[in-house]
Each structure stands twice: as C-alpha cells, then as structure tokens.
C-alpha cells in the first residue's frame, strides 16, 4: 500500500503551503488541518460543490470530512448560499437583536425537547466553556468529569486527555494550562460506568458536571455501549451533578435531535455547533430554564460575544436546519444507506486484501480503525496502526478521495454523496489496499 508515484500535480498547493508555513504556525489556522500525522502535503482548496472539493491545481476530491461536520447538505447548497447572500445585503452585523436569532432558536428547540432556553456563541469551544461555567455556578462545585479521547474545544480545563488534534499529535495535555486548572478535570475512560461511580465516591459533593460526547467522534467514531448514556444520566442525577451532552458534532448529524434523540437522553445542558451554523461560525449552549436563567443579564454568570447570533451565521443555520426538518424523512435514511455502503464496502475491500480494520459507524459518521479491534474507548483506538492509516490516507488522496488526516477523527458524508461517489471510493480503496 503506497502512494502512486505519479499522483496528481499539486504545484500551486505546494507554493501556497510554503507561504502558509512562513505565516502560520505549522502552516495552518487549526492543527487538525495539517498532514503531519498522515504524511504528504495538504491540497489548498479553492472551491467546493456538493460532494467534491477542488484544489488550487484543479484536482477534484470526494470530500469525507465536510468541514469537520457542518456540511451535511453538501457544499454550496443553493438554499444556504442564497440565504447568506440575502442576509449579507442587509449588512453583515448589527450588534443588536434580530428576528433570525429567534427563528433559529425555535427550530433548535423543536429538534431538542430537553432545551428550554439557549444562547448563541461563535464556536463549539465557547459553548462548552460557557456550559461548564454555568454548571459550576449552579452547583457551587469545582470539579469536572470528562472522558479520555473526547474533545470539547480548546478551553484550558477541557484539554486534559483530549481527543482530535490533541490525540493526533500526541499531546498529553496542553502546555500553558496551569496544573491548578488541570487538576479540576478528572479524565476517565469512556464506556466505563464503574469509573464514574468511583470518581463520585472519591469526590463526594465536589463534581459540578460530567461532560460527554454521547457518541464519541473525536477519538474516531466510538458508539456508547448499551445503557451507557442512561447510566451517566442516573449517576449525575443521584449525585446532584449536571450532565452536559456535547453534541457539537452529533447534533443534527446522527438524527435531527442528535444523540439525545437516538438514546432518549435528557441532559441538563446541551452544546451544539457545526451543522447548527450551516458552515458559518455558530455554537450553542442550551438547556433547562433554571440553569440558563443564571446567565447575565438575568443572573450572575457572565458570558458575552460581539458577533454572537451573527445575521449571516443565523441565516445559514436556519436554511440548513429548515431543510433538515422539512426533509428529515428522506435525508436521514439516505445518509444512512450511503454511509453504510461506503463504510462497509471499504471494510469488505480491506478483508479481501487481508488488512485488519475495525469499522465503527453511527449514521453518516464513521471511522476505519487500522486494528483488529474492537474499539470501545480511547485506549482501544490508540492500538490502531497509525502508519498504515497514513499510507491509506495518502493512497486515497492521490486517487481523489480526501479523508480526515488522522486516525483519531470521524469521517462524514453529505446528502450530495451518492452511488457514483461510493463506487469511486471503493475502487480507490481496492487499489490502495492492494498496492505494494
Ligand atoms: C468540534 C467540536 C468542538 C469544538 O468546536 P469549535 O467550533 O471547533 O470550537 C467541541 N465539541 C465537540 C464534540 C466537537 O466535535
């Protein structure tokens, strides 16, 4: 399995990369975009339509990372683009309230019955950071429980044993986070309720909240074991701690009501992002009125944002969520069948070629772990052969298929992906697995 000797030319991308490395640390504005973990040079994207990305040299790629989640309807989806254009003509920002905020909020509440009130921010990081501040204020407690391999954005207290780029680049916990802050975070193995019980027993009446990706996406895709979400709910309720479901990735992705809908989960607080902004910067933290009303200006918990609820972002979010709501009966079954075809199809090619692969998938998010598995937590994911994944990534990229450039990330597809893209991907994977 190796890259084609004569893969597509990426001369312009190489020049742009050289400039980027002079200007940006590692050449990127978010570490997950770098190709350090898989090798090879990242193409620079010029435009994208539907299921395809086009790079600066005119090469075309089937996109399996969808801007890391938001592009569930495919790129440049006309209703979303038109909504952004209309909003832009009315001026991109006012710093005063608009009707669009209420409209997107009502749509989100319709999808998430556990949400009574919400606040818009501009990233998932802000959403989780603010949810934790609220949980500490509401409980008068300091400790936070998170799970190894889960990523909840880059706020200080949430980088302990985090997934996504933190796992990809082998950073145990970020430098620059004082140990006094890191010590307030207890990182436990995912899918292990006994570990959660033990943490509450060891720290009675001291844990403010448990924050969880109900389906892990940021260590690669890891579904919860039967009864795990319900177990977290029961323990936190009994112990007087808040349960925060971080659905920045899974919200509107695995179902209209996310993992909460799939598992009948009723968290105290929910965080959303990615799809909620339709490709523009939106985060949401939300939940029960009794907690949300503790936010300024009603209550003593401060949180603010110059561009929060930005009109362009609200327009893109409304167009995306409205389409999903109006077409849910077609959209989610289509995503399921396309993702099943590509995820299981590549797994079958691997089996035929004698390559050990464990495929974890829920709906249109999945990961091919290069291990014989099973993968139930971060320690299992870390058993994967990252070098083999890197070779697979490079071989697919040279054949016009762009996966997220890390073993510890979930792949996504969109409603724009269909049979042609699945067939092309399977053909590329067949060659990749058989190449010497
Ligand atoms: C992406 C992600 C975040 C962070 O969102 P940003 O918008 O990148 O700050 C938080 N939690 C989860 C589960 C995510 O997938």
In short:
This protein has 15 helices and 14 strands.
Blueprint (SSEs and pairs):
Layout: H1 11-23, E1 45-49, E2 52-55, E3 60-63, H2 78-89, H3 99-111, E4 117-121, H4 124-139, E5 143-147, H5 165-168, H6 179-182, E6 185-188, H7 193-202, E7 207-212, H8 228-239, E8 242-246, H9 258-263, E9 269-272, E10 283-287, H10 289-292, H11 311-326, H12 328-352, E11 358-362, E12 365-369, H13 378-381, H14 386-398, E13 401-402, E14 411-412, H15 419-434
Helix pairs in contact: 2-11, 3-11, 7-8, 12-15, 14-15
Bound molecules: pyridoxal-5'-phosphate (PLP).
Give descriptors for this structure.
436 residues; alpha/beta; Aspartate Aminotransferase, domain 1; Aspartate Aminotransferase, domain 2; 2 domains; four-stranded mixed sheet; 14 strands; 14% strand; globular; binds pyridoxal-5'-phosphate
Protein architecture, described:
The chain has helices spanning 11-23, 78-89, 99-111, 124-139, 165-168, 179-182, 193-202, 228-239, 258-263, 289-292, 311-326, 328-352, 378-381, 386-398, 419-434; strands spanning 45-49, 52-55, 60-63, 117-121, 143-147, 185-188, 207-212, 242-246, 269-272, 283-287, 358-362, 365-369, 401-402, 411-412. With 436 residues, it is α/β, with parallel strands linked by helices. It has two domains: 11-75 and 329-434, Aspartate Aminotransferase, domain 1, CATH 3.90.1150; 78-323, Aspartate Aminotransferase, domain 2, CATH 3.40.640. The strands form three sheets. Strands 4-10-9-8-7-5-6 form a seven-stranded mixed sheet, with helices on both faces. Strands 1-2-3-13 form a four-stranded mixed sheet. Strands 11-12-14 form a three-stranded antiparallel sheet, covered by helices on one side. Strand 11 and strand 12 (365-369) form a beta hairpin. The longest helix has 25 residues, at 328-352. Residues 1-5 have low confidence and may be disordered. Residues 123-125, 128, 151-153, 213, 217-218, 246, 248-249, 273, 283 line the site of pyridoxal-5'-phosphate (PLP).
């Amino acid at each position: 399995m190796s890259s084609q000797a004569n893969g597509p030319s990426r001369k312009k991308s190489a020049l742009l990369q050289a400039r980027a490395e002079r200007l940006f640390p590692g050449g990127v504005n978010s570490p997950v975009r770098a190709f350090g973990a898989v090798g090879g040079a990242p193409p620079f994207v010029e435009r994208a339509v539907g299921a395809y990305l086009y790079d600066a040299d005119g090469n075309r790629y089937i996109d399996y990372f969808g801007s890391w989640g938001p592009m569930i309807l495919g790129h440049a989806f006309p209703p979303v683009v038109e909504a952004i254009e209309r909003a832009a003509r009315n001026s991109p920002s006012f710093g005063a309230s608009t009707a669009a905020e209420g409209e997107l909020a009502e749509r989100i509440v319709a999808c998430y019955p556990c949400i009574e009130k919400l606040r818009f921010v501009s990233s998932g990081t802000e959403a989780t950071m603010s949810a934790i501040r609220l949980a500490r204020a509401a409980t008068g407690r300091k400790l936070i429980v998170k799970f190894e391999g889960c990523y909840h954005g880059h706020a200080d207290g949430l980088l302990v044993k985090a997934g996504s780029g933190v796992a990809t680049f082998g950073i145990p916990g970020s430098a620059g986070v004082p140990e006094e802050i890191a010590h307030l975070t207890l990182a436990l193995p995912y899918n292990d309720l006994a570990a959660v019980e033990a943490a509450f027993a060891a720290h009675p009446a001291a844990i403010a909240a448990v924050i969880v990706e109900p389906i892990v996406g940021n260590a690669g895709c890891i579904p919860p074991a039967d009864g795990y979400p319900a177990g977290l709910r029961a323990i936190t309720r009994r112990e007087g701690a808040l349960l925060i479901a971080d659905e920045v990735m899974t919200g509107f992705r695995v179902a209209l009501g996310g993992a909460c809908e799939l598992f009948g989960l009723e968290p105290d607080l929910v965080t959303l992002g990615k799809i909620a902004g339709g490709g523009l910067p939106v985060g949401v933290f939300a939940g029960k009125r009794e907690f949300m009303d503790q936010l300024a200006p009603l209550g003593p918990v401060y949180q603010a944002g110059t561009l929060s609820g930005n009109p362009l972002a609200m327009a893109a979010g409304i167009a995306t969520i409205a389409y999903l709501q109006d077409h849910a009966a077609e959209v989610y079954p289509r995503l399921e069948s396309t993702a099943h075809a590509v995820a299981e199809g590549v797994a079958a090619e691997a089996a035929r070629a004698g390559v050990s692969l464990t495929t974890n998938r829920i709906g249109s998010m999945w990961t091919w772990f290069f291990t014989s598995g099973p993968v139930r937590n971060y320690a299992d994911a870390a058993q994967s052969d990252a070098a083999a994944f890197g070779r697979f990534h490079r071989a697919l990229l040279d054949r016009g298929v762009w996966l997220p450039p890390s073993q510890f990330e979930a792949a996504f597809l969109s409603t724009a992906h269909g049979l042609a893209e699945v067939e092309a991907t399977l053909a590329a994977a067949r060659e990749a697995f058989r190449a010497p």
